[in-house]
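Bumping my old thread because nobody answered last time. Still need a sequence for this structure:
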């Protein structure tokens, strides 16, 4: 079974890609809504939450883990593998597959993410390692506004303000490096010039999951959810993702 986690609904964009790539894999999704947003937390806080999420998924039977949260990527240190008895090839995170997608690209890259992701410099360092420049913009309140159901107008204002001082004509691609952001991709598209292509890393992560976990993770395609506090917004998004039903949602609170 594949365990997937995020601070809330963002990782559903990754779950969708995984289900498309590996429909027969069983998945268990943990949304830590009680502690959302992750993107404004310190590295220490995020490390504790990361260990907690992975342990919870392992206790419920997950043998492979997908971190569907960019903000915790800096916490996924080598030491974690030993502490959690997790083999390195049983963990997939966001940064590697995302950066790898641009290896052979000459596009001028702009990346948006939470403050935790930008401050960790994990993307800046990873792009540097493949000899690429990336400009970055942190959007402090966006993930939580999406998670807790702010209006379209409010979300559009947050996005417009974030790009106020950015010379958008200097970029070809905008990387949505927070898994919540693709949930409002249409608003990004409205705010940005047509010359900028939006990049949602979910597909690249789904491909990586298949490459690494197929055929080890073959089941009957069951999908279960655990959330750390109840949320009608989360329930509505899951219902939209799986209109055929057949899933369960457990609330830990
Ligand atoms: N969706 C997560 C990410 O990719 C977390 C966002 C948040 O909770 O702030 O960073």
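Sorry it took so long. Here it is:
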């Amino acid at each position: 079974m594949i365990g997937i986690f995020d601070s809330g609904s963002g990782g559903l964009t990754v779950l969708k890609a995984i289900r498309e790539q590996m429909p027969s894999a069983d998945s268990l999704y943990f949304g830590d809504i009680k502690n959302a947003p992750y993107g404004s937390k310190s590295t220490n806080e995020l490390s504790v939450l990361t260990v907690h999420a992975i342990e919870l998924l392992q206790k419920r039977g997950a043998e492979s883990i997908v971190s569907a949260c960019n903000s915790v990527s800096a916490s996924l240190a080598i030491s974690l593998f030993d502490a959690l008895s997790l083999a390195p090839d049983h963990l997939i995170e966001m940064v590697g597959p995302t950066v790898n997608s641009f290896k052979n690209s000459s596009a001028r890259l702009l990346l948006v993410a939470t403050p935790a992701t930008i401050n960790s410099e994990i993307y800046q360092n990873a792009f540097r390692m493949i000899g690429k420049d990336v400009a970055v913009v942190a959007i402090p309140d966006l993930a939580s506004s999406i998670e807790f159901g702010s209006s379209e107008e409010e979300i559009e204002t947050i996005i417009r303000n974030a790009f106020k001082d950015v010379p958008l004509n200097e970029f070809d691609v905008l990387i949505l490096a927070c898994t919540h952001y693709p949930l409002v991709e249409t608003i990004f598209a409205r705010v940005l010039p047509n010359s900028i292509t939006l990049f949602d890393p979910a597909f690249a992560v789904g491909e990586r999951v298949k490459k690494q976990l197929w055929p080890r993770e073959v089941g009957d395609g069951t999908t279960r959810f655990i959330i750390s506090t109840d949320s009608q917004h989360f329930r509505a998004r899951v219902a939209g993702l799986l209109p055929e039903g057949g899933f369960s949602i457990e609330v830990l609170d």
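Residues 6-7, 10, 36-39, 69-71, 114, 117, 143, 178-180 surround D-glutamic acid (CB under 6 Å). Let me know if any region looks off to you.
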